[in-house]
Amino acid sequence: MSMLRYMRDRDKNRPILLLWANKHERDIGFRDELNDMKQDMPFFKIVHVLSRQDDWPGEKGHVDAETLRKYVKDFSVPHFFVCGPVPMMQSILSALRNLEVPGKKIHMERFALR
Length: 114
What we know:
The protein is built from 4 helices and 5 strands. It has about 110 residues and is an alpha/beta fold.
């Protein structure tokens, strides 16, 4: 969120795709703030991916190579910032490597509630 806030305040025209994974809709953190950012940043797109809500009309399951391919057209251009629980990060890192994303374009930050 701090990186998104920084970009909102300094670089509103940078294209950003946020794949925001949660279990249920009720778990979506910062939802109002993200929606406000979407209004302020013309090139900001949010895709919510829910893993445990069958009636969700959007993306379901987990962020994986298939999800990434659906939303990212050229893997040689963007940088990827991955933050979340370790198992999720390992899964996404594996997918990015299989998609031949250069390591210097993958940035990871571990997140854990303890």
